[in-house]
Amino acid sequence: MEQRAVIKFNAKLGKSASETFRSMQQVYGNQCLGRTTVFEWHKRFLQGRETLEDDKKLGRPILRLMGRIHRIRPEYRDPENWSLLHDNAPSHTSLIVRQCLARNRVSVLNHPPYSPDLAPCDFSLFPKLKLKLKGRFFDDIPTIQSASTQALEAIPQTELEHAFESLLNSCNKCIEVRGQYFE
């Protein structure tokens, strides 16, 4: 909420979204909201939005998600065996998500900010997905979702396991060099 108030304040002062984001990075450092989030809220405030709170959402997404996971993957019924690679995305840091993770004793692995080299989706999953979808055009969101789902399901489990082994090796290397850059 505090950072949204800062965005609102800067928007009312006539500062651009870029200026707002740069100043927030100086103040909040690694805890700063992402660029896209700052730009979205800045635009909302310029369009006359007054409230800092999120819009109300229907349903209980966490409970629905847990129920769906239990139906589709009964072997994942015990969340104590789960780990979340935490990249500080707003969807992971909201109060309801943190409470759910704590209540279900999900192990949270904090991810260093701005480290796509240590994010399996960024170095493994997304490139494979992009390669499969490259050059294709889609008429609507359901078609995109269907094509993306098919492309993801086509990735062999061994490749996913290899991605997480690479993640483990990269994390160990990062620890060895005390967070310094490495190739």
UniProtKB/TrEMBL annotation:
Sequence ranges assigned to domain Tc1-like transposase DDE in this UniProt record: 69-144
Domain called Mos1 transposase HTH: residue spans: 4-48
Domain of life the protein comes from: Eukaryota
A GO term for molecular function: nucleic acid binding
One Pfam entry name: HTH_48
InterPro entries per UniProt: Mos1_HTH (IPR041426), RNaseH_sf (IPR036397), Tc1-like_DDE_dom (IPR038717), Transposase-MT_Hybrid (IPR052709)
Name this polypeptide is given: MOS1T transposase
Species this chain originates from: Acromyrmex insinuator
